[in-house]
Amino acid sequence: MFTILHISDLHRSPTDPIENSTLLGSLLSDLDRYKIESRNIPAPDAAIVSGDIIQGVNLKFAGYADELTVQYDVAFNFLAALADRMFEGDRSKVVIVPGNHDVCWNTAKSAMRDYVETNPPKKFSAMSFSSDTSLRWDWSTRKIFEIADKEIYKRRLDAYWCFIARFYENARLAHPIDATRGFNLFSLDKGRILVAALESIHGNDCYCREGGIERGVIGSCALAIRDLPQQPILRAATWHHSFQGPPVGDDYMNIASVHELIGHGFRLGFHGHQHLAEANAQKIHLPEEEAMAISSAASLCAGRMELPTGANRGYNLVVIDDEYTSCRVHVRELIQGNQFGRYTRGIFKVDGYAELHWTLPPSPSGGSPAGRSRFCAEAILRAEDALNSGEPTRALTIIDEADARGHAHGRRIYLQAARSLGQNRTIIELLSEPSSIGDFVELFAALLAEKDFSEARLLLGKGPALLVDQATLDEMRNQLDLKSRFGEKR
Q1: Residue ranges per domain, the chain?
Q2: What angle in degrees, to the nearest 10, is found between the helix axes of 20-33 and 64-87?
Q3: Cα(153)–Cα(107) distance, rounded to whole angstroms?
Q4: Residue 404 neighbours by CB distance under 10 Å
Q5: Whether 131 contacts 203, CB under 8 Å
Q6: Could you read off the pLDDT of 184-233 as tens digits, one per residue?
Q7: CATH code at 2-104+152-357
Q8: pTM above 0.90, yes or no
Q9: Within its chain, how far is the Cα of 67 from the centroid?
């Protein structure tokens, strides 16, 4: 199983703050309680942070740039400490996307000017002020504004991207961060799970509240994944905005984006925004039914005035099964003494979790879905190509990342690569328990090369059990005696 800690909406309420030490301490205390739950919850292997990293600042806030820096410092310290405590400092296991609170309203407003009426006058409708247009309507002043400087407008996320660059500065990311394309890719579970971090704040600013992923971004993301040398078993996606809510709401994302993700083979989604915990499945038919399981996390840090009636601060844990075809969404909420416990309302009643299922899509290369065996086989073929291309180090890395050393052919490729690099210690580790005469002979040679004569003598004693003939054992003993006579004993 692979467990993802899903947190969202980290913005701190100025009227109801919560400190990093309180948050982190409560999360770690709750982790200790996972083991006594009626359905055991494994410790998190990775984390997804689905937007709204900070509270942000209002329009005309004096010194807004400095205030944004202060707020991102708080978020940075919390997430860095979380990575240190839960993932041994590996920040590549923390996936982050922006939310509407991460949009700097003051920068967006500086890119706008009063709209100049045309001749003849233009007719307006609600769609004239959507996120895809350059016009904005301000209800407070009953004025129309126009985004006049698109370059300045793009910089409304500069503070967020500075935070991201700082957070991942020394992280070993499989896919470099790109602030310009509307998505980023994160490899989890040694490449078996790929998370697309999508920006749902296209056109979002001080006057446009709606969420949306820019047209073409999901298609570009799907193409980028299709072009990867190794296809993941499970494609997951995270974004910030919810896609359902009150009829009068205007800050939601079009559900068509979710349907598009399903059509591209995404089977697990994560979002926040509405400050409510939920788990459901969205489905389309092409013509067969295809489904995506979706985890919606409550706000981890919002204040009482920002939480829906009856809701508490909380987070989710998503436990993915070994076949990558189902998950359990466990919901935890802040109850007493700033401590998290089981959420027992709605579909999470009694057990505190909901189970969701899906069917993996066909592999882009054809044939059956990319399950564990196919993933392993593809990795071994890539490693073999690397070895044949004179890149033994890359071959070792590929097999290590795919945990393919247990596969017979993967083991052979690994041995060949280690042998070509003269990595005797790698060979000794891999063949520590030889299962054939060939393994026995290769292990013996590696031990001699490393002058590990005591281990070589112990190995010779195991020869008869592996049906090594006496003549071969005598010859090997002679080699050992000769080398140990002139070498340093170990």
Answers
A1: 2-104+152-357, 112-148, 422-490
A2: 30
A3: 7
A4: 23
A5: yes
A6: 999 999 999 999 999 999 999 999 999 999 999 999 999 999 999 889 99
A7: 3.60.21.10
A8: no
A9: 29
